[in-house]
Specification:
By secondary structure, the protein is an alpha+beta fold. Helices cover about 30% and strands about 30% of the residues. The protein is built from 5 helices and 9 strands. A hairpin with a 4-residue loop joins strand 1 (about 10-15) and strand 2 (about 20). It is globular. The two termini are about 25 Å apart.
């Protein structure tokens, strides 16, 4: 798994609108990249809603919030429309970035799911903090407080 001080790996993945995004698109701003297990499951829905609700607070600090899962573009689009999410979700169906960042998997009801992990990446693309086994409830508040403490 990536550690603090590591360079975040470059990537090219499509978001929920089918637009290709790369690490360069987020250069010069802080990036919260949160890995979540699956579209339209309770914890993942809570995270999407919370990040959408706090989007302005993140934007004010120059932070971009991006979700990542193995679901495809169509699944992401449906997920965003169903709950009116206003965060970008990257589709990684081949798990290229998920493997590159080293997020582990857990089995649940016979299916493997990626662990809920968040990477806090600075404006130069360097990992500043890694949150493992994230509790989706209140996670956005923890991130905002941590980033405020780091950037002052």
């Amino acid at each position: 798994m990536l550690k603090v001080g590591d360079q975040f790996p470059s990537f090219e993945l499509q978001n929920q609108d089918g637009k290709t995004k790369s690490l360069k698109d987020y250069a010069g701003q802080w990036l919260v990249l949160y890995v979540y297990p699956k579209d339209d499951t309770p914890g993942c829905t809570l995270q999407g809603k919370s990040f959408t609700a706090q989007k302005e607070a993140f934007a004010k600090q120059g932070i971009k919030v991006v979700g990542l899962s193995q679901d495809d573009v169509a699944s992401h689009k449906n997920f965003c429309q169903k709950y009116a999410f206003d965060v970008e979700l990257l589709a990684d169906p081949s798990a290229k970035l998920l493997n590159a960042v080293g997020v582990g998997q857990k089995e649940w009801k016979g299916t493997m799911y990626w662990n809920r992990t968040t990477f806090l990446v600075d404006a130069k693309g360097v990992v500043q903090k890694v949150y493992e086994n994230v509790n989706p409830e209140g996670h956005e508040g923890v991130l905002l407080a941590d980033i405020a403490a780091m950037s002052h």
